[in-house]
Amino acid sequence: LQRARVDLCLLSIDVLLSAEVRGLPGGDRLDCVKASDQCLKEQSCSTKFRTLRQCVAGKESNFSRATGLEAKDECRSAMEALKQKSLYNCRCKRGMKKEKNCLRIYWSMYQSLQGNDLLEDSPYEPVNSRLSDIFRLAPIVSVEPVLSKGNNCLDAAKACNLNDTCKRFRSAYITPCTSSTSNEICNKRKCHKALRLFFDKVPPKHSYGMLFCSCRDVACTERRRQTIVPVCSYEDREKPNCLNLQESCKKNYICRSRLADFFTNCQPESRSVSSCLKENYADCLLAYSGLIGTVMTPNYIDSNSLSVAPWCDCSNSGNDIDECQKFLNFFQDNICLKNAIQAFGNGTDVNVWQPILPVQTTTATTTTASRLKNTGSETTNNEIPSHNDSPACANLQVR
């Protein structure tokens, strides 16, 4: 009987895992460029897609004589029809050749469906990476991080220079981010573009080594803070209001997408083992690094903590002060992100052998995959503590 229960438990876990792979609801996903091409070849899909794009643009009068509720019904009908097409479930890949075009298509489908900006779903295809895979390959991480007296950030920079790809892309952003002219300190636009390429193209074992290196003294933390050349990529003469900065970000397809990806993959959850809703530090770090090189570029606030923030504040927020503070706190006081950064720097990951079930949340369609993790007996004082194991298959269900 016990053997049968174990088999049933494993079968249930397999069902959840396979459902996650299939992307329920939605099945196999095409990237939005391919899905759009496919849609345009089918007359009914093409007509509905054009209608929806005009709905999103608020140009009902340009495509229909209907006004008011009739126009809204036509928009709703177009969306319902497209739900049956591959275009509805399309996603993009970060750094893909036609990323901006892919994201433009995605948002033309989805931006009319979203409410609060913090609830926007990520337009990027899940990477399904594990932080431990990065650790296994990384040459930077110390075997005994607590006892290390060296400058890990300096070691990471040296390791980057020994890797042709890392060295090339690092040099490519250092030049525009530091060169000065008579009129300005640097060309921020070129600096941002080069930084995006660095974090999109350089393997995480090198780029993360420089950005998330563990430190025990100010010299190290200051080097970590200077990784992105903040005087050019981050700082400005004045700090804008965070909500205004967010609005500016939303006008750019890449920035809006990277921000939505960050909200999705670094969503804190106090009831989870890792303090992350998705129980995946690697996805959170990838999402965070993806913001660097946009107008929302974050950086370490100072040399004394792992708190980060974009270059903005909540002064002059008026009646929107609570909303602004909520936005800023998602960066500054995000325990999921802090744990992920600390975990990489210390060479640790969440150690627990149990299925992590989806946690009910009010965020957009972000569900946690059911993942099995191995229990680790050795801990350091920098390791993320695990909760007590719950009974196997407790409350296991397909949602």
From TrEMBL:
Region called Disordered, residue ranges: 364-399
One GO term of the biological process aspect: nervous system development
Membrane topology of the entry: Lipid-anchor; GPI-anchor
One GO cellular component term: receptor complex
Entry keyword GTP-binding: no
Subcellular location: Cell membrane
InterPro entries referenced in this protein's UniProt entry, alphabetically: GDNF/GAS1 (IPR016017), GDNF_alpha (IPR037193), GDNF_rcpt (IPR003438), GDNF_rcpt_A1 (IPR003503)
Keyword check for Transferase: no
GO molecular function, one term: signaling receptor activity
Signal peptide (UniProt feature, chain positions): 1-23
Compositional bias per record (Polar residues), positions renumbered to this chain: 370-389
Domain of life where this protein originates: Eukaryota
Main location: membrane
PANTHER family: GDNF FAMILY RECEPTOR ALPHA-1, GDNF RECEPTOR ALPHA
Family according to the record: Belongs to the GDNFR family.
Listed name of the protein: GFRA1 protein
Gene field: Gfra1
